[in-house]
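Appendix B. Chain record.
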Amino acid sequence: MKQLRLVIFLFVVSIACKPIAESRTADRQPRQERTPIPPTVTGARRTPIVVVAHDALPAVVNIQTESTIRRREVDPFFDPFGGRDRTYTSQSLGSGFVWSSDGIIVTNNHVVEGASRITVNFNDGSQLPARLIGVDPDSDVAVLRVDARRLLAAQIGTSSDLMIGETVVAVGNPFGLSGTVTTGVVSALGRSVPSKEAGRTFTDYIQTDASINPGNSGGPLLNIEGKVIGINTAIYAMAQGIGFAIPVDRAKKVVQDLLQYGQVRSAWIGAVTATITPEEAKRIGARVSRGALVARVFSGSPAQVAGMRSGDIITAVGGRPVDSREAFSTYTATIPSGQPLQVSIVREGSSRTVNLRPADPPRDLGLRILWEVAGLRVRQSRGVVIDEVASGLRSEKIGLAPGDTIVAVNGNPVSTIDELNEEVKKSAERSSIVLDVPRGPYIYSLAFPMAM
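Structure tokens predicted for this chain:
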């Protein structure tokens, strides 16, 4: 009987506590609201930009990050040979927006890079801690998740039909000033933007003259329909009216992969390309002056299956013109594995179309590339040891021999075959592979061109 009373008591307590717990959880939920535009606002003032800003602002968030920095300090007078570690906390602000109502927030990778704590501040003043789902440094996109339900999400549009000159609206939190709205037009498409901080060149950016300032990074760029067509990401420090945004179509692929796999899975084409300029076209006698020149086609690759050859010039992908290697790489980076793709090429002066079907890269792609490009096979010993050198290729001509070791690829140290495979795989679209091979007291950096 006592046991029965105890069970009943615990059951009643659990029922009583459940609404309280649910209430506390509900209290933490952001109270995003799209309040009606006041009736005193006339139709003349209710412009498309006003409507876009009104509808988008509740979905735009402020992202606050904290980073822990450890620095060793030495006092030259009292502690000249020692020193001690000191810990500092660095804070920064950026922007982001609600991608989906189940708590997915999208921002720039550089906004959250190195952060030990991430806090998302919503338009209503509420705050929630965020968990980093994944990042893609190559596109400067990061995906966060907050513990919230039924969020007001931004409308996701498309960047495939953008027109130069069309009106765009940038929303973000420059200098910590939340909910800032600026307007402009699409100034150009397909821009390549070098970044000294990231040590890479970002490609296929949208250029806009909508004012983008520090803190706007990660906020949405919207069209006049209020749909996200890009993610604000960069400015030219020495220029006015020049800002850049990541096309939303590229971001869609990145977000989908990060949510599903935790990393971006790029489909494999199997073709190494180079930008062809008017000067280069004249030198090789090509009839087209812009495009991506196919420098190598790997055996067994989707490009070879489609019938592409070294020397072909790619002029369009899916009807979109290609004027550089970067443009071709950008178009193919957003294509899911297995989706057919029409590629327009010029071969020996004649135009034709090939049907390319990108595939998932083979697990040993890096080792395959190493054999085809450098003529090297390796084995695991005390490090990565060359096991075979193909005759007649550059490796043999410069004197590489079985027993030599490879200690780095493109400046990145490797000590296992798996590390070597991954580093060479990253070079699949580069113009060359650089291998560091020690001999005696020296380490030689040996370059192997990807072109045939």
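Further analysis of this model is presented in Appendix C.
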